[in-house]
Amino acid sequence: DAPGQRPVVGQRDSSARAYHRRLPLTLVSARGATVRDADGREYIDCLAGAGALALGHHHPVVDQALREALDAGAPLSTLDLSTPYRDRFIDQLFSVLPAPLQDGRILFCGPSGADAVEAAIKLAKTATGRSGVLAFGGGYHGMTQGTLALTGRRSAKEPLGALLPEIHHLPFPTAYRTPLRAHGPASAPGGPGGQAVSGATTSAELAGSLVRWALCDDHSGIAAPAAVIAEPVQGEGGVHPMPPAFATTLRSTTTEAGAVLVADEVQTGLGRTGTLWASERIGFDPDILVLSKAVGGGLPLAVIVHRGELDAWQPGAHAGTFRGSTLALAAGAATIREVARAGLAQRAGELGRRLSDGLRAAVGDDPRVGDIRGPGLMVGVEVVDPETADGYGVPRPDGALAAAVQRTMLENGVIVEAGGPEDAVVRFLPPLIVSEEQIDRVVDTFATALSAARP
Ligand code: PMP
Q1: Which of 58, 99, 370, 417 meets the CB 3.0–4.6 Å disulfide criterion with 427?
Q2: What GO molecular-function term can you cite, just one (predicted)?
């Protein structure tokens, strides 16, 4: 379509059905934390490319980096050959990596997060000579056959039959709707649907015990795996932060079992959760860090950074054509520099508190709001049907309500995502440069949409 002409991309009948069209929108321009549709309506973008746009749309430093690369006649695609853009990206990324990975190695993996997860698992297999992987319920690592095998959502995998062999899932220590509690009749002491775990025993400790059993107990029957993979905050699974106690257990038991610990920070990386790396704050301390989304400045880029001793591949053992295009490297380097320079991780923490506290104040008492959670600007509100109870002793997720809220929010100028069980978690992932005033409008719009959905 010529510029200015009303585009119809996304509404064409030729799009495969796999594109869900919950949001009937054609977006034509964007700036900062807002996007504009073909009718000139403006929306606050709490999707931000599923978290890829840390600096929002057209941040001046990113636009300038892209223009400079184009004006300089930079080579656009060089496979693994060195360019100043690639070198600058590497320097910039290493200047902000967690200390234990500062003398690690970087591998460019392809355009998508799933590419990088695939590379991490392949590398762990080569380095250990083993083949299994331990992953977690509710985890999300991508949609390729290998990464889907690691993903902890049964309904996404069932139609495909066998994916990767030897993948084992254990419960993630969620605080809400947790399987890690004793179950009994509805009348049992400790609350409806079962007894809460007693005393000081928390879901983090129980999940840690299961990991220890799976990895270190001969009688678990599970062959020692090549890798253990987890997100420091589960994103697509419904915004579940990993408790620090569980991160510590993961680290020690993975070492004991001789496996490789992989942190999937595709969504959490580069400041979103209030610290530059979500794994750093909770003591996750991975052997391989998987990064994509924000580190490409909104353009496709994915890397793994691994400890030096895992450098197990011979040259050519892992290849791919699009492993760091110049424009993505330029945008990524500029984004990393700006996030660090402007203290945007800390700002994400502050604005995230404003968002979470605002939501709690506005709708926390509504019985249809089951839980409000998440660190920094990675926030989820799980909406429920208060008249019901699931097998875990809490009201069932209400995906229809979440969809209604999402639709009304769109009509009122805010784009949000839905995920988690039954897609009943309304997810907020605005760019880190979102303003306080925009955050307040997001809160108001959510509250309005929820009350409009009153039956
Ligand atoms: N890991 C995590 C934690 C993610 O959130 C995602 C994408 N939402 C992926 C992996 C897969 O990334 P991509 O969609 O770029 O393949």
Answers
A1: 417
A2: pyridoxal phosphate binding
| 106 sits in which H/E element | strand 105-110
Measured CA to CA in angstroms, residue 90 lies from 104, 166, 198, 260 at distances of 11, 34, 48, 23
Ligand 1 atom having least distance to the Cα of 292 = 15
Q: What is the pLDDT of residue 216?
A: 96
**Sheet strands (E) in 142-301:** 167-170, 227-230, 233-234, 240-241, 260-264, 288-291
Please indicate whether residue 267, judged by its CB atom, sits closer than 6 Å to ligand 1: yes
Q: For atom 1 of ligand 1, which residue has the closest CA? A: 141
**Does the C-beta of 151 come closer than 6 Å to ligand 1?**
no
Over residues 418-452, the pLDDT tens digits come to 999 999 999 999 999 999 999 999 999 999 999 99
Pocket test for ligand 1, best of 136, 236, 262, 266 (most atoms within 8 A of CB): 266
Of 388, 403, 254, 318, nearest in space to 116 by CA: 318
pLDDT tens, residue by residue, 203-260 = 899 999 999 999 999 999 999 999 999 999 999 999 999 999 999 999 999 999 999 9
User: What's the mean pLDDT when you consider all of the chain?
Assistant: 92
Residue range 352-398, pLDDT digits in tens: 999 999 999 999 999 999 999 999 999 999 999 999 999 888 999 99
0.90 cut: is pTM over it? yes
Ligand 1 pocket member 215 (CB < 6 A)? no
Q: What atom of ligand 1 comes closest to residue 265's alpha carbon? A: 3
For ligand 1, mutation pick of 292, 304, 378 (most atoms within 8 Å of CB): 292
Under 8 Å between Cβ of 89 and 332: yes
Is 50 a pocket residue for ligand 1 (Cβ < 6 Å)? yes
State the Cα–Cα distance between residues 446 and 452, nearest whole angstrom: 10
Residue 106 CB neighbour total at 10 angstroms? 19
Residue 292, ligand 1, Cβ within 6 A: yes
Q: Would you say the CB of residue 108 lies under 6 angstroms from ligand 1? A: no
Q: Is the CB of 268 under 6 A from ligand 1?
A: no
Spell out the domains of the chain, with CATH numbers in brackets. Answer: 101-321 (3.40.640.10)
Interface confidence, given as ipTM, is: 0.99
Q: Which of 287, 284, 244, 241 is nearest to 262 (CA)?
A: 287
